[in-house]
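Lab notebook: predicted structure, single chain.

Context: the supervisor wants predicted structures on file for every construct in the current expression panel, including those that have not yet been purified. This is the next one on the list. No modifications to the sequence; it matches the entry in the shared construct table.
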Amino acid sequence: MRPQSAVLLLLLAGCTPVMETALHFAPPTSEEGRQCVARCQAERAPCAQSCDRRERLCLSDAESRAMRDYNIDTDPDSGRNRRAGSGLTYFDYADRYRRLCSFTGCRDACTATYRSCFEACGGTVTETRVCVANCG
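Prediction complete. Output recorded below exactly as produced.
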C-alpha cells in the first residue's frame, strides 16, 4: 500500500459515523406486569449505584496515584527523577490512571439484568442503531 493510500484510509476512518445501540422499553399493559417492572427497577437502582460508587472510588484513587507519581518522577531532589524535562504534566499521569476506571461493563451488566427482568414481566425491548458522531 502506498503511503498516500494509508493516509487517505486513516482520514476516511475518522469520518465514518459512530453508531450506538439505543434501547426502547415498552412496559407491559397489565397492572401485574407494571408492578413486576417496578420490582425490576427497584433491583436496578442499587446495581447502578454500586457501579457509580466503584467508579468514583477508582477515580479518586487515580487522582492520588497520579499526583504521587508525578511528584516523585519530576522532583529533582528525588533519586528517581525519571521524567524531569520530559514535558509530561500532572494531567498526563492522571489520564493514564483514569483510563483504568471504566465501569461501562458494570453498567452494561445492570442493564442486561434489568432488560431480562423487564421482558420476563411482559414488557418489550427494541433496539435501534443511532448515529452519535460524524453523522453528516
